[in-house]
Input
Amino acid sequence: MHLTKLHEKVNNLLYNRFLPWSTYLWVFFKNDLQVRYAWIEWVLPFQIVNLLIGVATWLFFGRTVGGQANLIEQQFNSNFISYLILGMAFNGLLGYSLDAYYGAYRRGLHGSIGIYGQSIGMLDYITLSGTPITAWMGGWIAWGYVENCVHVVIYLAIGHLFGLILPQSANYTGAILILFLGIIATSGLGLISASMIWIVGAWRGDEPIRWAIGLLVSLTSGVYFPPEVIENSWLETVAYLLPQTHALKAARLALLRSYSLDMLMPQITLLILYAVVLILIGGMMFRYSLSLSRKKVLIE
Output
């Protein structure tokens, strides 16, 4: 009897909720793919130049200031440019996860659709059409991950021009797993950030949680230099509270020192904990925020 009820609930969840939702998501993703085709021609070439100049700037800055080479050599058995390239490339994915949910929902909040001289808000239009808002957001966010994965490839290509060295025994599987867990964890933070639109009214300007974490990650999480060089115990403590710090370090260890999954298990376990806790909290807060959107009135 209980197994029958459980089977019915699973079928209902799969066929009546997940499959329709995933269909909507795929439709929106394909639509964005067609709309953003111009990105390849008019945006990507300029982004490549921007990434190239950005990498060169940090490389020359690091060579000028110095002082980190010995620490990087000790920790990762590699050079500064390899450390820098991997940090910038992977932080792009993690940073996008932090920003995307707030950006997607705010885009729907401020966007509108015009029909015969009349306009209706984007989110209102989506709601009236019976389309799940999360599916529309998911389709838009998914394209951003494609774009950022392209950026990672570009970073690695540029890195090889400047001296990026990856050993033949590099653990690519471990690095991908670490990044996947880091993306889930930072997505939880992103959902918390997006929920602030209705919970505290952060729909204009900068959202404080996303803004604060973004600043702290750049300063303390080891994107450009090892966190150990920070001669401030408070900032160093903050650094190791952020999932980005552990994800960046573990991904570098997997690629630069060829750490196996067993050797990476402490970081993997910690990132799983971050991912589960943050995605649950973020999901609940965003769901609560959507419930508030049906009760509150937004006045520009």
Summary: The radius of gyration is 21 Å. The beta strands are 112-115, 118-121. The chain has one domain: 47-293. The mean pLDDT is 82.
